[in-house]
DNA sequence: AATATACTTGAGTGATCACTCAAGAAAGAC
DNA sequence: GTCTTTCTTGAGTGATCACTCAAGTATATT
């Protein structure tokens, strides 16, 4: 009996994610979203409830896609090669919304205000870190990395390196791929 | 003949810096600044011209203080020890406005809008990097670091590590001091 | 004391913020 | 076709944004 919405919800969330990722939370106004999503305010609020709610969905998609891509990479070329290639892949795309990680951008922007989205970002970062730890452990099981290392410690440092790389990649005149290579080399030395 | 302002300009800039550092550019409203600086709008604009102008002065002070502290540390305990201790020092203070670097926060927040302050932040980061490179070179001259390394490359990676550390330090439940220690250990291995 | 020269005050500017809601339009059920 | 249910529209909400400016006040010079 009801009328169906004439949009693809998943597509809208992806476009919102790209906009939020690039411009940040306060840098993205509802007017921006209305223009990008081709929605009037009424439809927007009927569909998503609030700007924050959509931002939450956008971050969720960002993380899910990231976890999935990493898993695919690991399936294709093994855990240690995935970990080595991941940094370069994270910054290689020229048409990505931003070089920096959406989660770190959100955390830095909203943490001081104790905004719920900052906490969400923090939890998502932890989720990523757990997958890194998982890959480090798999690499240890495969005998590719010394087993005396704690995979959680390795993952924490790896995550930190990755975040630094992706901030550096936002800068002009910085050869970020060289930094990515150094991170990869660091893994080889473990 | 004129009346003197009844405030200490340098003190105002420091307090503005702390507020901007903690809350970011768009997270700090003029109302916030008026409250923190105890200034009415008229005085504020007479003294600083605009929010952006004050933000620029605040970043300038942030960098100058950073460069000076690093130089002092290097004078006190030598270039390589300064480089080793710096990461831990950057995140140790509990009453600092934020763990993350003000320059990286500004860059991430404003880069997508091509805001002049993002460019300023980028230049300031380069300035810091140059001082790091200088210390690496001094350490090489003193025979403390292998001379085959390019100090500019070392500095770039060091800066990236530092930025990552300071983003990680914003997260809850992360032992950032352990990451700082790993960065220091990395320098020892050079 | 008079004057000139700032500095301080705070109400007020238009613009934009996230968001609301009543009215109209579309599509499946009958 | 009619009804019911949902989606779409877009003008409009109060709040807040960075910022202005005319009037009042304080101080150094003469």
Major beta sheet of chain A, specifics?
none
The whole-number mean of residue pLDDT values of chain A reads 96
In angstroms, what separates the terminal alpha carbons of chain A? 62 Å
Q: Summarize the amount of helix of chain A as a percent range.
A: over 70%
Q: Count the beta strands of chain A.
A: 0
The CATH architecture category of the domain at 59-188 in chain A equals Orthogonal Bundle
Low-confidence stretches of chain A: none
Keywords (chains A, B): DNA-binding, Transcription, Transcription regulation
Pfam families (chains A, B): TetR_C_13, TetR_N
InterPro entries (chains A, B): Homeodomain-like_sf, HTH_TetR, Tet_transcr_reg_TetR-rel_C_sf, TetR_C
GO molecular function (chains A, B): DNA binding
Description:
2 copies of one chain form a homodimer. Helices cover 73% and strands 0% of the residues of chain A. In chain A, α7 crosses α8. Chain A is built from 9 helices and no strands. Chain A has a domain at 59-188: Tetracycline Repressor, domain 2, CATH 1.10.357. Chain A binds chain B through residues 22-24, 26-27, 98, 100, 104-105, 107-113, 119, 122, 125-126, 153, 156-157, 159-165, 167-168, 170-175, 178-179, 182, and chain B through 22-24, 26-27, 98, 100, 104-105, 107-113, 119, 122, 125-126, 153, 156-157, 159-165, 167-168, 170-175, 178-179, 182. The structure holds a DNA duplex (30 and 30 nucleotides). Chains A, B: Residues 6-66 form the HTH tetR-type domain. Chains A, B: GO terms for molecular function: DNA binding. Chains A, B: It comes from Falsiruegeria mediterranea M17.
């Amino acid at each position: 009996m009801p009328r169906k919405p004439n949009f693809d919800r998943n597509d809208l969330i992806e476009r919102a994610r790209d906009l939020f990722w690039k411009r940040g939370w306060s840098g993205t106004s509802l007017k921006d979203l209305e223009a990008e999503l081709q929605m009037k305010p009424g439809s927007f609020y009927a569909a998503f409830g609030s700007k924050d709610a959509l931002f939450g969905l956008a971050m969720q998609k960002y993380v899910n896609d990231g976890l999935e891509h990493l898993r695919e990479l690991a399936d294709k070329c093994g855990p240690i090669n995935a970990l080595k290639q991941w940094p370069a892949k994270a910054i290689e795309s020229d048409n990505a919304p931003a070089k920096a990680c959406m989660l770190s951008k959100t955390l830095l922007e909203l943490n001081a205000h104790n905004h719920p989205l900052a906490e969400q970002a923090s939890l998502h970062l932890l989720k990523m870190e757990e997958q890194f730890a998982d890959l480090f452990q798999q690499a240890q099981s495969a005998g590719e990395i010394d087993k005396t290392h704690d995979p959680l410690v390795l993952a924490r440092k790896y995550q930190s390196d990755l975040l630094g790389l992706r901030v550096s990649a936002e800068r002009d005149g910085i050869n970020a791929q060289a930094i990515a290579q150094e991170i990869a080399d660091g893994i080889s030395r473990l």
